Amino acid sequence: MNRSQAELLLPVKEVPAAIVVGIQKQGVDIEQVADDLLEMERLLETLGVEARGRIIQRRQKLSPGHLLGLGKIQELTALAGAKHASLIIIDHPLTGTQIKNLEELTSCQVLDRSAVILDIFAKHAKTKEAKTQVEIARLEYLLPRMVGAWTHFERQAGGGVYVRGMGEKQIEIDRRRARERIGRLHKKLDAIRRERDTQRKLRRNELKVSVVGYTNSGKTTVMGALTLSDVRPEDRLFATLDASIKPIDPNTRPKILLSDTVGFIQNLPPSLVASFKSTLEEVLNANLLLHIVDVSSRNYEAQMATTEAVLREIGASEIPIILVFNKIDLVDDPFLARILRKKYKGCMVISALNREDTKTLRSHIFNFFEERFSEAEISVAYDDAERISLVYRSCVILDANYEEDGVVHFHLRAAPAVLRKLI
C-alpha cells in the first residue's frame, strides 16, 4: 500500500451527490426505514457527500442478482439522472454480484452501508494502530466482493473501495495478495497491541472508567467536561477512533482514569468490530462504564439497545454501568428527565455543557468507587518502596504513623484488589 489509509477511500470530488435507497422488509415499520435513511444521510454528510434523493424498496423477497426489482432500478436510474447523482447508496448488505449488476444497469457507482462506514473510518484514522485496523477491515470487506472487473490491490492501494481496473483474470491474484497483506497487517497490529498491553500493565492498579455509547452521543464532550481538559468535540459521526485516556483529577488518590472509545452504530460491519478489538479492550479493562445516550434523538432507545448489543458481543455486559442521558438541554419535554429517572433507576440526566451537571456526574463516579472501598490497617517497612508507592498511588490514607522501628502504620481505604496486594 503506497498511499495513506487516512485518505478518503472515495474522493468526494468524484462522488459529490448520492441517491439513498432503503429496504422495507415484511414486518418492518416505514418510520424505522425512514430513520435508518436519515442516519445514512448523516453518514454521507460526514464524508462530504450530498444526499439528493431517497427511494424505498418494499419487497417480501429480495432479488439475489440485483437486490432491487427491475421497476425500482429504472426509477432509481431516472432519479439519479434528474438529480445529477453519480453514487447510489443502498442501506443493506450487498454481494459483489449485486453491486456489479446494479452498476451496469444504473451507470452509477453503488455502495452499501458497510462501505460507507469503512470510508468514514479511513477518513478519521489518525494513529498507526487505527490506520492498520481500518486497512484490515477494508481488505476483509473486499475479499468476498471481488467479481467482474475489480482492479488488483497493488493498483488500488489506498484508493476507493470500488476502483475499476484490470479485469476477470486478475481476481485470483488480487485475492492472494489481499490475504497476504491481511496476514502482514495482523502481525503489525499484534506488535502494536503488545505495546498497548505493556501500557495497560503500568495502569493496572488505577481505577478505570470507560465512556461508551452510540456515535455522536456526546461522549467526547462528557469526557472533556469530566477531566476539565481541552478536548474539542466535533459534530460528526465516528470522530473518535482511538482510545483517549485521561485522569478525571490528576491530584486525587487513587487516580481514576477515563477513556473515550469508538462510537457504536447499528449494523456496524463485523470486520470493524474485530479490527478495533484492541481499542474496545479499554472497555473490557474498565471497572465502570459510562453509557452516554443522546436523549435529544427520537431513536435514543434503539441506540441504547445497539450499544448494549455491542457490549454483549465483546463480553462487557457484566461490567457495572452508569446510564447517562445527555443533551437534555435540547429536549422540549419538561417531564422527560423525571420520567427517565423513574424508568432507569440510578441513571443521570445531564447536559455535558452544564458545569453543575458534570460536577454532579463526577461526584457520582467518585461515590461509586468509594462505596466499594474497604477499610484496613496495615504496616509497611520504610524500605519496602513498592508497597509504600502502591499505598500512596492507590489508597485513601486516613492516617499514617511513622514509628522509630522503621515501620509505618497506615489506616486506609482502598479497592479490595489493592488491599489483597498490600496485606
Notable characteristics:
disordered N terminus, alpha/beta, Rossmann fold, single chain, 4 domains, 15 helices, 423 residues
Account of the protein in words:
The protein is of the alpha/beta class. It has 4 domains: 12-120, 3-Layer(aba) Sandwich (Rossmann fold), CATH 3.40.50; 127-199, no CATH class; 203-371, Rossmann fold; 374-422, no CATH class. Helix content is 44%, strand content 19%. It has 15 helices and 13 strands. The chain has helices at 30-47, 70-82, 96-106, 113-124, 128-142, 153-156, 171-202, 219-227, 270-275, 277-284, 300-313, 336-343, 355-372, 385-394, 416-422, and strands spanning 17-24, 50-58, 87-90, 109-112, 207-213, 244-247, 256-260, 288-294, 321-326, 348-349, 374-381, 396-402, 407-414. Strands 6-7-5-8-9-10 form a 6-stranded mixed β-sheet, with helices on both faces. Strands 2-1-3-4 form a 4-stranded parallel β-sheet, with helices on both faces. Helix 1 (30-47) packs parallel to helix 4 (113-124) and helix 4 runs antiparallel to helix 5. The longest helix has 32 residues, at 171-202. The radius of gyration is 25 Å and the shape is elongated.
Structural class: alpha/beta
The CATH superfamily of the largest domain is: P-loop containing nucleotide triphosphate hydrolases
Q: In terms of per-residue confidence, which ranges show pLDDT below 50 for 5 or more consecutive residues?
A: 1-13, 149-159, 161-167
Please give the share of residues in helix: 40-55%
Which strand-content bin applies to the residues? 15-25%
Q: Sketch the topology as an H/E string, one letter per element.
A: EHEHEHEHHHHEHEEHHEHEHEHEHEEH
**Which CATH architecture of the largest domain is right?**
3-Layer(aba) Sandwich
Q: What fold name stands as the CATH topology of the largest domain?
A: Rossmann fold
- Order of neighbouring strands in the sheet with most strands: 6-7-5-8-9-10
Question: What overall form do the CA principal axes indicate?
Answer: elongated
The tally of structural domains comes to 4
Total strands: the figure is 13
The value of Rg in angstroms is: 25 Å
What's the main sheet like?
6 strands, mixed
The CA-CA distance between the termini, in Å, is: 54 Å
Mean pLDDT across all residues, rounded? 83
CATH class of the largest domain: Alpha Beta
Helix count? 15
